[in-house]
Amino acid sequence: LERQFNDLKNNKFLKIDQQANLVLFEARGINFIKTRHELARLEAMVNETEQTISDVRKGLTELKKINEAHREAINDLKKKYDDLRKRLLAENFKFGPANAGLDKFLSQLEADYDEFTRLTEDGDHATASDI
């Protein structure tokens, strides 16, 4: 998505501008066939660029949805983690020797949560989805 956007910004718009200038230059002459050919080429470039713009917009919409889903997941995970931590602290006597293992497990969950949150805030949704 980023590559497509950068290609649009750095290459395609410039090439369309150059092609439009060529069409205008050719239109001043009497070679109508060449002018028609260059105009058709310009139209094809514009159509291709419009499709790329559409693809980038769809990708951005999808990224917004993923971002929102990750934010909801962060909130849900935080609530579940807080509930588990409270229960473990309040009822640690019930768990006996397993309490240390449960505490270690919750510490790992907290580390995963922190990493997921950091990746989401940094915009690395693909890696965050893997956690």
From TrEMBL:
Membrane-protein topology: Single-pass membrane protein
Compartments in which it is found: Membrane
A UniProt-annotated Pfam family: EzrA
A GO cellular-component term linked to this record: membrane
Designated name of the protein: Uncharacterized protein
Keyword field: Coiled coil, Membrane, Transmembrane, Transmembrane helix
GO BP annotations listed: septin ring assembly
Organism listed in the record: human gut metagenome
Coiled coil among keywords: yes
Chain coiled-coil ranges: 39-94
